[in-house]
Every structure is written in C-alpha cells, then in structure tokens.
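Quick question, first post here. What does this chain look like in 3D?
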Amino acid sequence: MKFERFEDLPVWKDSVTLAVSIFKVTRDKRFRELGDIASQIQRAGLSVSNNIAEGFERGTTQELISFLYYARGSAGEVRSVLSVVERLEGLNDFKSEISNLKSVAEAVSRQIRGWTAALQNTPIRGQRYLNGNTKSEFEREKRRKVFEATLKQHYQPPVS
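> Answer (accepted):
Ran it through. Tokens below.
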C-alpha cells in the first residue's frame, strides 16, 4: 500500500495514540512532584510521531530511515522512563497504565523496525529522486518480477 501523507500511516497514528496517552497519565499531580520526569516522557512520546512525520516529508529513503531510527530511539526512551516510574514509590496505582504505555511503545517500535527493514531493501531512493525515467524503470522492473513469478508458477519441469 502506498501512503501519500504521514497522517495515513498506521505507525504514525499509533505513535500519536502513545503521546496522547502519556499526556493523559502525566496530568496527575504526582507526576509533577517528580521533577522533570513528566516533561521528559512527554517530549520523548511526542518525538516518536514527530520524527516519523519529519522523515516521511524529507523526500529521500535514507533520510526517512534516519528519522525512523530517531523515532524508534524515542520509543525506547519512553519505555526507559516508564521503567523508572514503575519502580518509584507512591505510583503503584499507575502500574496498569504504565504497562499499557510500555506495550504501545513496544508495538510502535516493532512497526518502525519492520518498516525500516523493508526500506533498506528497496531500490527506490525516495521521492526527491523520482522522475519520469526512474518511475518507468521501477514499474518495468516490477512487471518483470510479476511475469517471472507467474512463469515459475505455471512451469512444470519435465519428469526424467
């Protein structure tokens, strides 16, 4: 599936859900009593979706991959902060929310890892490099691969 806008990306939507959930949980006054930890996790959570968006808009596959790694790093930062919060006294009744947030952050990280792996194996260098010739060449190659796969499916080697 081809996405025209980052807002349509499932991983971006999930990362926004993560950020919104973080902001909801950190509204509690007990988080404000922990110094800068609420602000830190809010910034990290927001950074995930922002880096996905920025990478998507950059125009090259390599830049997108770089920003996806930043986003994945921010998702890891969210999990790290949550692990610290999980161990702090006085926040035991947040265990369920923390566990849910960690699960969402892990799911987003897995999606980013999968997308990055797919991008690393593509010959497409990015929107910036696409012109009439490269688009035609890419489409020709795609049709050739489909044709070869169809041939292999229907070809029966002679029995000896």
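Residues 15 and 49 are 5 Å apart (CA to CA).
The mean pLDDT is 88.
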